[in-house]
Amino acid sequence: MNKVTKAIIPAAGLGTRFLPITKAVPKPMLSVIDKPTIQYIAEELSSVGIEEIIIVVSPGSDVIERHFGEADALEKRLLEDGKTELYEIERQTRRFNVRFAVQEVANGLAGAILCAEPFVKDEPFALLLGDELIYAGENDKPCMKRLTEIFEKTGKSVIATMEVFGDDVSKYGNIGIESEEDGIMQVNAIIEKPSVNEALSNNAIIGRYVLSGKVMGMLKKLQPRNNEIYLTDALHELAEKGELLASCFEGIRYDVGDKFGYVRANIEYALRNKELAKQTKDLIKQLAKEL
User: Fold this and answer.
1) Under 8 Å between Cβ of 8 and 99
2) SS3 letters for 229-266?
3) Which of 20, 185, 264, 284 is the most buried (most CB within 10 A)?
């Protein structure tokens, strides 16, 4: 059975690129307009039928748990004040079936995934990295829906990919492509952040995956490098066995782990917001005249 019912969202990073705000606020709780990035990521799963989300947090990081938890006093006050629209907005944060795992040791992405192993065991799972938002327009198939459909049809692990060029090649994991049919690529190798000359292709790995349950067992056997366990080591092993696929995605990807990417996301999401679109357009036009 290839049905995917669980997802992991790693959210235990230190967020050093966003200091000093991340000294007190976990980076996944930084907002794009009025929602934290981690809520957008959880919402990506709404088209997939995921039944359970496991969020991996750092020790003492209870603000994410509070965001997805109960707020009875707030809800009572909103209802008493007749603010039913705000009440419904607040209630949306509680519609997810969320569990939490704590990453006690900062040993990388694979280490975070292993923290969720008691919940996932040997079942397949979706993996969504908190540094990236993927906006799907009206006519776009959501990225996670496409990946899930490919996995459930083939039984093979599948990763999202995008084309990169020049110096950007060295910023991402890179895949070798053996063949491609109907937009689905058979991956035969993976290299972590190669130089331009080492790159296997122009296809980079981005932070959306649907992985076979066997990946957990593979991660347990990996030897750390530089005090980290690397997911790409397990993915490369899958690729060598012909068990790893890749697919491009529809929509727009935002790197909200990068300061400019975060600013861009706020601007473009504001342009899609009914309340803010006109004011934002007017501001951009005014600023353009002054540049």
Assistant:
1) no
2) CCHHHHHHHHHHCCCEEEECCCCEEEECCCHHHHHHHH
3) 185
Q: How far is CA 112 from CA 127, 183, 220, 222, 231, in A?
A: 11, 30, 12, 14, 10
3-class secondary-structure state, position 201: coil
Place of tokens 């060295």: 170
> What element of type H or E holds 78?
helix 72-80
* Cα 164-168-173 angle, rounded to 5 deg: 75
Question: Which residues are 6's β-sheet partners?
Answer: 52
Pair of tokens at residue 111: 């280490």
The helix/strand/coil state of 47 is helix
Q: Which helix (H) or strand (E) holds 271?
A: helix 259-271
What tokens does 102 get? 């704590």
Radius of gyration of the chain (CA): 20
14 pLDDT exceeds 80? Answer: no
pLDDT in tens, 224-267: 787 788 899 999 999 999 999 999 999 999 999 999 999 999 99
Residue written as token pair 């692990």: 157
- Is residue 58 a contact partner of residue 102, using CB atoms and an 8 Å limit? yes
Q: What is the pTM of this model?
A: 0.92
Alpha-carbon distance of 68 to 62, in angstroms, equals: 10
E-only strand ranges, 156-290: 157-163, 173-181, 184-192, 203-211, 244-247, 252-255
Instruction: Identify the CA nearest to 56 among candidates 111, 12, 16.
Output: 12
d(CA 49, CA 35): 22
Alpha carbon separation from 226 to 106, 223, 229, 250 (Å, rounded): 11, 10, 8, 35
